[in-house]
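S.,

Sequence below, as promised.
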Amino acid sequence: MPRPTMPHPHLVILRTVATVVISCIIAQAGWAAAFLGGSEDYFPYHRVGAVVAVAASVLGAVVYVVLRRSAGPVNVALAVALAVGVVAQYALGEAGLASVHIFWGVWVVMIATALTSWTYRHQMPGEMSAA
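The prediction came back faster than expected:
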């Protein structure tokens, strides 16, 4: 029985970045849900988490751009779109546009999910599918 092998180091980096970014975004949604549900104590966590989510998504997009040959055009486009979306989400929150902020947050979660899914399914250029 063949032993499983580790994926290429670039894929490990990209998958780690996608996991960290989606984790930050899901945490944001959770903290928002908690304070919208009446637990005002969670609002400061949402505010701090917003800065963390912006930093993680922008740094993540930089990593995808740097590793663009390994990441592929779809993943790079998703990572950049996500970073732009998270920055816009932050701006909407700072502007006090709660309804648009919440609606836009759904879009951000969808893009983060797509990025994570595409990244975990992605293979290095030139690799054959195991299927």
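Helices lie at 9-36, 43-66, 68-71, 73-94, 98-121.

Coffee later?
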